[in-house]
Every structure is written in structure tokens, then in C-alpha cells.
Amino acid sequence: MRRVSPLEGLFPFFCERTFMPLMNTPFAPGECLKAVESMEAGVQRDIAWAEYYYFSGQPENAIGRAQPYLASDDAGARLSARLICSYAYLHFSQDDQALAGLAQIECALRDMADGSPREKAEAAFVAAAASILLHLPLPQNMPNMENMLPLLPQGLRAFALYLRAHSLYLEKQYGLSAGVAEAALAMGGSNFPIPAIYLHLVAVMDYMSLKDREHAHDHLMHAWDLARPDDLIEGFGEHHGLLGGMLESAIKPVWPAEFKRIIEITYRFSAGWRRVHNPVTGEEVADNLTTTEFASAMLAARGWTNWEIADHLGVSINTAKRHLSHAMEKLGVESRKGLERYMLR
Question: Percent of the chain beyond pLDDT 70?
């Protein structure tokens, strides 16, 4: 049974900006398309459609809607289009276009040097999103994101706090990261479904790293309740490798068709992600494991025992051992310690 959202029927659809307008719009689960159609025809609605297509796992349609605005005179639309297209290109082995998009985003920081405070904040937001989610170093000319937060509207501020929480996760400050995510949700972020999904997902990552499956499961299901009515499943595919098998444990048994689509997104996105991330950073994130092998290896690298992995994934101890053995064989490592260099952090 779907949980009834406290948002249902409470919010009008209103967003005055052209920078990521759907992300900055509160809507009840199941009313995402209504929110898009309510926006002003033209640039704002086109960017909102591009957002919807991207976050619902339709990157080709996202590119089609966003691409005409890559050189727009409207700064908000231009920044939105560059961010959306850069990530959508990763699904199609278009590494050169993804890298070109990232370069354009870094250029935007310089272009906005003489812009309004709001434009500077939006450029910083896009640069942070492009770098942190690909686990790449932030641009050298990146302004302090904390200083930019008050200049962003509430929905975008909530997503910016997700980026901060994700950054803390990468620094292995799991408790602090979870605290940022939960505070952002409590302070209004839960009113904006797209940022809220991502905030819940980073909390899953944190609690799985802390071996707190109960809280991880609770956050995953809150994210799922927000995402499923509008098919906003992209974030689940993007984060699969960091969720520590939680999708296999909680989503696959009950929603196998949706799980299959999430895994299709995972394989497409992660292949492009690695092709950009690995050469830039010099790291070697694993690229030839099944999603189950990756989840098993990730948990093992974090110190989970075979029994804990088997219990979490709902498989036998022999099956858990087999997944881990296959992963280690493919990666050419002989110990759990050796897995760490290949696992997402």
C-alpha cells in the first residue's frame, strides 16, 4: 500500500525561474506531469520537460528538449541544458560530448563572474553537481557553496544540501552526511520530490556504510514512495553501486519490473560514468561486474561478513560466497582488502 503523502493537495504549481524549474517545484506524488504542464509555455516548460525526461530515465528525450537551449541567451535555461545534457550523454557512450558539457559548465563559472548574485549561485550549483556526482575534483574557481546556499530558492537549496551530503559521504563522514540529509528533509526539502529522492538516497548510502540497515531501508522506501508514482527512477540507477545491495533487498522482490528498468539505467549510466571518471582521476572503479557482484564486493570492502551479505541480499551463504568469489576473480584480487581500490567510495 502506498503511503499517503502529506503534500497531496496542498501545493499550487508555481515556479518563476528557468533554472531547473521542476527540481524547484513542490508537487504531490503522481502529479509531476501536471506540474510540468502548468508551467509557462516556452523555455520554462521545455526545461521542465527535459528534467522530467532525465529523472524518469529517458535520456534521449531529455537531450531533445534541452539541446536547443545549450547556447540560449537565458542564463538559467543555458545552465540547465548544459547540466542535463552532460549527464544524459553518459547513457549513450558520448564521452566527448559529456566532457565538452563539463568543460562548458566550468566556463560558466568564469562567465558568471560579473553576473548577478543569483546567477553566480546557479553557476556554482551546476559546477558542484557536475563534479561531485561524478566524483571529480571541484573546479579551481569554484566559489564556496555554503555562501551560495542563501541565494538559491528552497528546492534548489535542498538539492545543493544533497550535494553537500554526498561530498561528506565521499570523505567518509557518514554520520555528518546523514545529518545534513535528514536536516534538509526536515527543514522543507521533503516538499520538493526530486531533491527529496536524492536526499533520501544519500542517507541510504550513509546508513549502509554505518551498517544500520533499518534506517537505510526506511530512507529507501521514502525515496521509492516519492519516485514510483511519477516513474522518477533515474536516481536509483545512478546510485545503485553506492546503495550496498539495498535495491536487491527491498525493491527487487516486490517490484521486479521496476527493478529491471533501474538496473538497465545503472548499466548505461555507470558505463559512461566510469569512462569519464576513471581517466580523469586515475582511479579504477570496477567496470566488468554484474550489479549483484558489485553490491557483494562493495559490502565486503566495507567489512561485512559473508553471513551479513547473504542475510541482507536474501540469498544463501553459498550464493553470497559465489558472488564475492566471481567479483574477486574478475578484478584479479585475492583479499577483501584488495577490493577497496575498485569500489566506489
Answer: 84
* Under 8 Å between Cβ of 328 and 339: yes
Contact present, 70 and 85 (Cβ < 8 Å): yes
Please report whether residue 126 resides in a domain.
yes
Range of the domain at 55: 32-283
Show the cell assigned to 25.
517545484
- Measure the CA–CA gap between 200 and 196, rounded to whole angstroms: 6
| 335 occurs within a structural domain | no
What's the total number of domains in the chain?
A: 1
The CATH number of residue 38's host domain is 1.25.40.10
Strands, E, within the chain: which ranges? Answer: none
What's the rounded Cα separation, in Å, for the pair 311 and 305?
Answer: 10
Residue 114 belongs to a domain: yes
Q: Is residue 254 part of a domain?
A: yes
- pLDDT tens per residue, range 15-59: 457 899 999 999 999 999 999 999 989 999 999 999 999 999 999
CB of 275 within 8 A of CB of 95?
yes
DSSP 91: G
Q: Could you give the CA distance from residue 256 to residue 30 in angstroms, rounded to a whole number? A: 20
Q: How far is CA 59 from CA 23, 255, 266, in A?
A: 16, 22, 13
